[in-house]
Amino acid sequence: MSAFNGTEVYWADDGGGLRAPSSWAVQFWDGGNWVNVGNQSGQPTALNTFNDITFGPVTTSKLRINMQGNGTASVGMIQWVVPSIP
C-alpha cells in the first residue's frame, strides 16, 4: 500500500484519430469498491500538456483512471504520472 495526493495526465490530440476523453476521474480501490478521489467534477483535458490533479491523501494498492470516450476518436493518453508520498 502507498499514499498518493496527486497525479499528472498528458492527453494528446494528433489532429486525426487521437482526442481527449469527454470526462474522466481518478479512482482508488478501497478494498471492495472503486472510489473517486477528491472533487472529480470538471477534470482538465488540456491537450498536449500535463494536467495536474491534486487531492487529499489516499492510501491504496490500486489506482486507475476511469474515462469516457469522446465519441469521435480514440482517447490519446501519452503519459500518466502518479508519485507516491514518501
Give a brief outline of the structure.
With 86 residues, this protein is mainly beta. The chain has no helices and eight strands.
Helix content: under 10%
The termini sit apart by 12 Å
Q: How large is the share of residues in beta strands? A: over 45%
Major sheet attributes: 3 strands, antiparallel
Enumerate the strands of the largest sheet in spatial order, edge to edge or round the barrel: 5-1-8
Number of helices: 0
Radius of gyration: 13 Å
Shape: elongated
Tell me how many strands there are. Answer: 8
Element order: H for helix, E for strand: EEEEEEEE
Unreliable parts: none
* Mean pLDDT figure: 87
How would you classify the helix and strand content by structural class? mainly beta
Describe this structure in words.
There is one protein chain. This protein has 86 residues and is mainly beta. It contains no helices and eight strands. The strands form three sheets. A three-stranded antiparallel sheet has the order 5-1-8, with no helix packed on it. Strand 3 and strand 4 form a beta hairpin. The protein is elongated. The model has no long low-confidence stretch (mean pLDDT 87).
Give a quick set of tags describing it.
55% strand, 8 strands, mainly beta, elongated, 86 residues, 0% helix
